[in-house]
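Example 3.2
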Amino acid sequence: MADMTTKTLSYLPFMKMHGLGNDFVVVDERGITPIVDATLAKRIADRRWGVGFDQLAVLSDHDDSDVHLTFWNSDGTTAGACGNATRCVARYLMDETGKDALRITTDRGMLFAQDAGDGQTSINMGHPQLLWNEVPLAHEMDTLRLPIEGEPSATGMGNPHCTFFVDDAEAIDLAQRGAEIEHHPLYPERTNVQFASVIGPNHLRMRVWERGVGITQASGSSSCATAVAAARRGITGRNVRIDLDGGTLHIDWRDDGVWMTGPTAHVFDGKWRL
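Structure, written as tokens:
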């Protein structure tokens, strides 16, 4: 695609990928004039009239990294971070270049990816944002326990998160509660919502409602935020297994950031007629 321009491009090549069922359309805009905007993202996102995705990831050139990623939600808004999509793109680029480590820039900043072996890919999602104005929240408060029924924790991972710890994550009406909390006035930029329960030592079951998307099978940044909140509250240690609807991620909150490890899948390639 390096020699293509918008004048000669009659179709847009794309890849369909997923991480544990958290699915993405990936568009490679390296070397071409940018094409994807909010209108096109919403059209591609439609699961009946388009392709369908939880997020759309756009690759572009960057002087100081292997690639820059921009993320679009299915409602046409942008997201600062998307952990599972970053892992999928990292795996694609590792296969393309033969590298086993990458530097990836996003609106979150510089992220580092590594081949973890056995088909697993690890991403350092950076340090969690734990201050109220970093998440961000509407006004100053303790992010460990918010003044919301259920006393959830707030965490920023390049995007805002609200994590509830409950006895049984399966029993939560996720569609209703997720939609309510996404638009809570404490979150001026809306929020991702997680409900997590303990099923063993350093082992959580989590379900997720993503901002601008709805219920998803998995979420990388939500898993990181949940692991951070659980460690801060003494529910788990810093190395945690999280079981989501689509499968399992391993989260390790280290001194250099929050590492997320899991599988990826490149499902098919397609062309979107412009």
